[in-house]
Design brief:
The chain is mostly helical and 113 residues long. The chain has a domain of 45 residues. Helices cover 43% and strands 0% of the residues. The longest helix has 10 residues.
Length: 113
């Protein structure tokens, strides 16, 4: 039976009866390939490095990606490495100064608002 005869019999448009051949539809029919990831187990020496240096440096030393090092460090509950110059704690003198300075008067609005 041709597409037109089938269309007349089922009252469908002939285009709806044609087999779908669009490349995207063919891709949908294919099963996706799932490749298992082979993870290298973490050695105790590598675990001791976590948090002692930046994650990218440890990754280069151990042959792992930045994301692998970061994920393992977070799973292990180890805080990230903080360089001495990156964050500086407030001194007790600075803590005492908080809230002692008077606020400046609110500036007057200028312009046509």
């Amino acid at each position: 039976m041709t597409c037109r005869r089938a269309a007349r019999a089922s009252m469908l448009h002939p285009v709806e009866l044609r087999p779908k051949s669009h490349p995207a539809l063919r891709m949908e029919r294919q099963k996706p390939m799932i490749i298992p990831v082979q993870q290298k187990p973490w050695a105790p020496d590598e675990l001791k490095l976590l948090g002692t240096k930046p994650d990218d440096v440890i990754g280069k030393e151990t042959g792992r990606s930045f994301w692998a090092v970061r994920t393992r460090r977070r799973i292990s509950g180890i805080p990230r490495y903080v360089d001495d110059g990156e964050f500086r704690s407030w001194t007790p003198e600075q803590d005492q100064l908080l809230g002692t300075c008077a606020l400046r008067a609110r500036p007057q609005r200028s312009g046509g608002f």
